[in-house]
Structure formats: C-alpha cells, structure tokens
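Quick one: structure for this chain?
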Amino acid sequence: MPSPDGRAIDPSPGPRRLEKAPSRATLTPWERADPLQDGNEGARRKKLAMTLAIGVAAGLLLTVVGFRLFENSFIYFPPRFPEGFSPPELYGLHVEDVWLTTLDKVRLNAWYLPNPASEQVLLWFHGNAENIGYGLERLRFYSRLAVNVLAVDYRGFGKSEGSPDETGVYRDADAAYDYLLRERHVQPKNIIVLGHSLGGAVAIDLASRRECGGLIVQSSFTSAKDMARRMFRIPLFEYLPKSQFDSLAKIRRVRAPILIVHGTRDEVVPFSMGQRLFAAAPEPKFFFPVVNAGHNDVVEIGADDLLDHLKSFIG
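Got it. Here's what it folds into:
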C-alpha cells in the first residue's frame, strides 16, 4: 500500500532477509556439474589414452625392429668347420674340395663327387643345422644313383665365408649352378636339383628361376610364415619375419619334373606341408611318402625303396 507521501510500503514485517543459496550437497548431479572441471578431466583422460597408445605402438615397433635385427640368428644354425667334418675317405668317397664365388663375392666351400660315366649332376642343398661334413652318409647314399654330385655349404656354414640370410642362400644356389655350367660344362637339362628341409626351399627357388632337368624336394615346408605360425603359436607372429621362403608360390613356376619326398611322421615339417607343395606343383609331378620316417631319417628309413624312386625319377 502507498504511504502518505506516495512511496510504496513493503507489507512484510521486519527487516528483509537474503535467501540462502542451496548447498552443493543438495544439488542434483547435473546441477553440481562444473563444465570447466569436467573439460579438464576429459582432456586428462584423452592425454592418458594417447600416452598409452604411443607406448604400445613404440613397444610393438621395438619388438619388430629387434626381432628383425636378430632374425637370422633365430632361423639359421650353421655348424662351422671343423664341426661335423670327417675325412670323406672314411665313407669310401673320393671328393674334390672346390671353392665357389657368389655374385656378392662370398667364397663358398663345396664337394664334388665325380662319376665320369654320367652326364647328369645332382645339385644337393642340405638342411639347417647341417653342413656337407655332416652329410657324408647321405652323399654316399646319393652316389649310388651313379651320377655326379655337387654338395654345397651355404654362406656361414662349414668352411664357407659370410653369414646366411634368405637373399644370400639364393645367391649361393646360383653360384653352384653357374659353377656346373662354366667349370664343369654341364647342360642345364642334366642338372637335377635336390634340397632337404631348408635346402628344399633353396632348391625350389633355384628351379623356379633357372632351367633344370628335375627338382627333388625332401621334407621341406610351404613358407616361412607357415612355419612361424606352427612353431610359435603367437597371434600375428608369422608377420614379423622378413624372410619369406614362399615355396608354395614358387613351385608353381617350376618347368621341370618334380618329385616330393616326405616322411609321414615328420615332427618338424608336417607331412601335410609336403602334400600342399605337391598339390601346388605343376605336372609332371610325383609324390613319395616315406612311411614312419621323421624329419631327418627319410634316407635311412626309405633306403632301397627311396633309391629306386630316385633312380626312376632321374631316368
């Protein structure tokens, strides 16, 4: 109501009181939210997530780089001279000790077992953790094929210089092949390439690129990726090695008769890999399973039956 002088009168008695603001505890979560504080919290979480992501990526990168730096020491187990070497004469063999030089100037040691009655040469590549010294018993077995034999030590194996890697062992195979052509004057059609295990991958690569009279693959694998998957059983581990040894793809390009030999109880390279190589190979091709043989005793268990198949294949 107005006062006599015309001013408005507050009808509420007593002094005016200021309303007290509600406490933060009585506010709803939406009312309590501090946009600035929440923004800072979100930024901290994003920074933490980014730091963790960078740490994981760096760890993976270091793992890949570290593995690839030392990859060859995980793949190759080269026994050096004098390990494995006995006098060939103890096996009734009279071999010629020869030296080859690769395209990248690495000197390789090899043994040449001559048979003047034959124009054919068996170019033999041994497996991993072996050298030509360890192979004397098999060299004697192959001498029964009545052909010449050239057995080569890869770089870093036996007396050969250097250290092995995938590109290098392929160059070693080329050096052996070229030696037969240039020094022994062997026709490509008379070169029979044979490889065991790792040597099988080397033999397939050589035969896929260069003319030969036949390819014999013994106890060998489909690819390095397949072997990594089998041996380590760690998800995606097979993508770490830079070595490929993709025999499954290369064998399709071979333009010579192919014989696949594999032990049915191979504990290192499964029998199924030999079957897959055979399935991928072009005709003419032959498959000889050595019943009850493992990875390193195919020759011993196959014995005369294996020898007969090899003689038939070589012709």
